[in-house]
Fold this protein.
Amino acid sequence: MKSSRKRLVAELDRLFSIYIRTRDKRVTGGACMMGCGVIECCFHIISRSKHAVRWDVSNAIGTCNGANIKYEHDALFVQEVLGRHAQALGRAVWDELKARSNQVARFSMDDLRAIKADLLRRIETVCLEEKGYGRKA
């Protein structure tokens, strides 16, 4: 049986994926952010094993499964993705994200609950905007 912490982390991963895929489908009309298919998954630019940036919305894009698999096996594709993402974010934001990814993250249960509340708010916002309610970002 999973501990309550592990269940919450699994739920955060699921909510994060829902938010990223919904956000990016809205931007691209459903096309993979790498331009090679349709959005099927949440793609972490910096590995999700780097807990400090695991649920950072600037560290993920919606991609097709093919791009996700290619990222694990094609060094040139990795460099292309990193370059595109650094350019899209801006060099200062990218450098800060990379620096934070190397920090040790020790999230308390309260921290994880706060991340969950933020993700739920983001999902609600993007879904309302998709339906034409509220202000578009």
Notes: The chain has a mean pLDDT of 90. DSSP finds five helices and two strands in the chain. The first helix runs from residue 4 to 28. The first strand starts at residue 41 and ends at 44.
